[in-house]
């Protein structure tokens, strides 16, 4: 699928085909996509535990639920628990030196082994890792980048995905999670039982509401013709139609025995 189409097709899927297995190859592709994400100090900030629902057991599934993560957990055949590693600074000096030796961090920009030891690591990376707020901020951003790449790879593979909250304490115990990993999000994966396009794109505010040109207060102005190109490429699609979606949800409720 073309990149713009993948971005345009992605929806949070909440109704999965519960018995349609997800090929391990596709999960592998998602993890490779996550592993390719850009990352500060070339570190492994993001961690994930891939679980097949039926291996988790009903009792654990029930306990993992939160007020916003309910029936989708029962329906999705695969649950990927994403975590962030707060010890990302370990090995950072060696990895930065490796990038320097390879020329990814070029000498033209001031990089050398001494610069890594005396400036980049000591003055930037180490203080950031030690400060709890800065550490959590860095880990969270990094995880967001990686998780999104996995999510888009899933859409490219014809899967449905959604991110959800989960009970971190229950998962920590059930999945043997180390203390230095912080919970991010639960990604549910499976083949959509609902329209894979979720009945249309979700409402979004115009770019001018959030993006600025030059300085805050000067809203971004759309470039004429771009929206039409993105419609043709599939990144911008029809918005949701509430009535059509209600009818679909009614049918899904009947099929899965869910309350309306
Ligand atoms: C980080 C993150 C956490 C989310 N957590 C939940 C959740 O706990 N339960 C849920 O039903 N949806 C959750 N969502 C899905 C959002 O509600 C969804 O993104 C929103 O409906 C917009 O729709 P879209 O993703 O289809 O564009 C989450 C989405 C993100 C990105």
UniProtKB/TrEMBL annotation:
Keywords, in A-Z order: Flavoprotein, FMN, Oxidoreductase
InterPro entries linked to this entry: Nitroreductase, Nitroreductase-like
Gene3D superfamilies in alphabetical order: NADH Oxidase (3.40.109.10)
Keyword Flavoprotein applies: yes
Start and end residues of each Nitroreductase domain: 9-191
One Pfam family, short name: Nitroreductase
GO molecular-function terms, A-Z: oxidoreductase activity
Cofactors (names): FMN
Family classification: Belongs to the nitroreductase family.
Name the record gives this protein: Nitroreductase domain-containing protein
């Amino acid at each position: 699928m073309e990149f713009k189409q993948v971005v345009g097709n992605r929806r949070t899927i909440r109704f999965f085909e519960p018995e349609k297995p997800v090929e391990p190859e596709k999960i592998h592709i998602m993890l490779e996509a996550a592993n390719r994400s850009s990352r500060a100090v070339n570190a492994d900030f993001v961690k994930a535990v891939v679980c097949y629902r039926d291996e988790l057991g009903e009792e654990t599934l029930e306990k993992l639920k939160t007020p916003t993560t309910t029936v989708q957990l029962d329906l999705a055949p695969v649950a990927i628990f994403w975590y962030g590693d707060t010890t990302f600074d370990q090995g950072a000096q060696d990895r930065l030196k490796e990038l320097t030796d390879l020329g990814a961090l070029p000498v033209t920009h001031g990089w050398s082994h001494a610069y890594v030891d005396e400036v980049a690591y000591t003055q930037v990376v180490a203080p950031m890792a030690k400060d709890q707020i800065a550490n959590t901020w860095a880990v969270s951003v990094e995880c967001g980048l990686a998780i999104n790449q996995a999510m888009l790879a899933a859409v490219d593979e014809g899967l449905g995905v959604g991110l959800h909250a989960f009970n971190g304490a229950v998962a920590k115990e059930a999945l043997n999670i180390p203390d230095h990993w912080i919970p991010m999000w639960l990604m549910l994966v499976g083949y959509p039982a609902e329209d894979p396009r979720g009945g249309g794109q979700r409402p979004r505010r115009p770019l001018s509401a959030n993006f600025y040109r030059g300085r805050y207060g000067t809203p971004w102005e759309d470039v004429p013709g771009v929206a039409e190109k993105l419609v043709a490429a599939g990144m911008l699609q029809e918005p949701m139609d509430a009535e059509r979606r209600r009818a679909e949800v009614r049918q899904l409720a009947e099929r899965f025995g869910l309350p309306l």
